[in-house]
Design brief:
Order of helices and strands: EEEHEEHEHHHHHEHEHEEHHEEEE
Shape: globular
Strand order of the largest sheet: 6-7-8-3-9-10-12-11
Number of helices: 11
Distance between the termini: 19 Å
Length: 336
C-alpha cells in the first residue's frame, strides 16, 4: 500500500506494488517485493538501506533499465504523467528517460562515454528531447555546466571525461540530468565514489538546484547521515521491501522500525564523542525466496513469535509516518 497521506493529485510519480526478480543459474532472486510509494512535485525523497536492500533495482525498474533477461518486472504500476511507464514501448520510454525523468548514476566514469566530448554528451540529450539546434544547443550546454559550478564552462565542452576529476565528472552527470528540465531526477548514490569535501559540494549543488528549479528528486543512498539536511521525506528499505517511511525530522527523532533505529545508531555523532557505535548483528536478508515472515526478524532484538510467521504490513504509526513492524518500540509491546 502507498502512504495514505499522499493522495493521487499530490503525486508527480506513483509506484504501486512493484516487484522485480532475476533468474540466475542458482535460482530466482526476488530483488524487489511489492514496493509502493509516491513522490510529490518538487519533493526531495531519500531512499536508504544497506547494499542489497533493493534501492537501486527499484528505481531502475521504474524506467525498465534493468537488464531483461535475466531481470524481469513481474508486477506493479509506475504512473507518471497519466501513463504507466511499465506499459510503454522502448521508443516511448526513451522520450521519458533523460527528458522528463533524469538519472544520475553512481560512477560517472563508467556512465559517460569516454570517446565523446562533454559538450557532445550534453547536446545529444538536448537534440533528442528539445527543439533546440545550432548555437542554441551549445549555449544551453554551457549554461548547464555553469549552473552546476563547473569552472570555464565553454572550454569544458571540448573536454573528454578522462580529463576531468571525479567531482567534475559528477557535475557533468548532474548537468546532463538537468538538460531538459525534467520533472523528476533519480540520483543513485551520486556521492559514494567521491571524497568527503567533494561530496559536500555535490550535495550543496543539488540543494540549490532543487530550490531553484523545483524539480522532484529521489536520492538513493546507504548513508542516513547524508540525507539529514537534504531530504523532505525518507523511505527505508530492507530485503526488497519498504520497512519505514516518514518525514525526515520525524524519522530521526522517532524511528519506528528496529532496522531504522540500527541504521541511526551506526552514524557517528559529534555530540556523542567517546561512545561506541552500535552495529546490527547478523547478515542481510536472503532474497532467494519470497518472504513469508519479517525479513529482519533474525537480526532483531524485538522479534517475537508473530515476526517469524507473518510478513508485517506497512501501516500508519503516526502523522505521515508508516512502518512495517509487529512491535511497538515506544510502547515496548506487540502492535495490535
Amino acid at each position: 500500500m502507498r502512504g495514505a497521506y499522499l493522495s493521487g493529485k499530490d503525486a508527480v510519480l506513483e509506484v504501486s506494488d512493484l516487484s522485480t526478480e532475476f533468474h540466475t543459474p542458482d535460482g530466482v532472486v526476488h530483488a524487489v517485493n511489492g514496493v509502493s510509494f509516491a513522490l510529490r512535485s518538487g519533493e526531495f525523497l531519500a531512499v536508504v538501506g544497506e547494499s542489497g536492500s533493493g534501492k537501486s533495482v527499484t528505481m531502475m525498474s521504474m524506467l525498465k533499465l534493468i537488464p531483461m533477461p535475466p531481470g524481469k518486472i513481474v508486477a506493479g504500476k509506475v504512473m507518471f504523467d497519466h501513463q504507466d511507464l511499465l506499459e510503454l514501448e522502448t521508443s516511448q520510454l526513451r522520450k521519458v528517460r533523460g527528458g522528463e525523468i533524469g538519472f544520475i548514476f553512481q560512477d560517472p566514469m563508467t556512465s559517460l562515454n569516454p570517446v565523446l566530448t562533454i559538450g557532445r554528451q550534453i547536446t545529444e540529450s538536448l537534440e533528442l528531447h528539445t527543439d533546440l539546434s545550432g548555437d542554441a544547443v551549445n549555449d544551453r550546454a554551457e549554461e548547464l555546466l555553469t549552473m552546476v559550478g563547473l569552472p570555464d564552462a565553454r572550454a569544458r565542452l571540448k573536454s573528454y571525461p578522462h580529463e576531468l576529476s571525479g567531482g567534475m565528472r559528477q557535475r557533468v552527470m548532474i548537468a546532463i540530468a538537468l538538460a531538459c528540465s525534467p520533472k523528476v531526477i533519480v540520483a543513485d548514490e551520486p556521492t559514494t565514489a567521491l571524497d568527503v569535501t567533494i561530496q559536500a559540494q555535490i550535495i550543496e549543488i543539488m540543494k540549490e538546484l532543487r530550490e531553484r528549479l523545483d524539480t522532484a528528486v529521489i536520492w538513493i543512498t546507504h548513508d542516513l547521515g547524508v540525507v539529514a539536511g537534504l531530504a523532505d521525506r525518507v523511505i527505508v528499505m530492507y530485503g526488497g521491501k519498504i520497512v519505514e517511511e516518514a518525514r525526515v525530522g520525524d524519522l530521526y527523532a522517532n524511528p519506528q522500525h528496529p532496522y531504522t533505529r540500527g541504521l541511526l545508531g551506526s552514524i557517528p555523532r559529534l555530540d556523542q564523542k567517546g561512545q561506541e557505535l552500535s552495529a546490527i548483528e547478523g547478515s542481510p536478508a536472503s532474497i532467494r525466496a519470497i518472504p513469508t515472515s519479517c525479513s529482519f526478524a533474525p537480526r532483531c532484538d524485538y522479534a517475537h513469535d508473530r515476526c517469524h510467521t507473518e510478513v508485517p504490513v506497512l501501516r500508519e504509526v503516526g502523522a505521515e509516518h508508516m512502518a512495517a513492524c509487529w512491535w511497538d518500540i515506544d510502547g515496548e509491546r506487540p502492535r495490535l
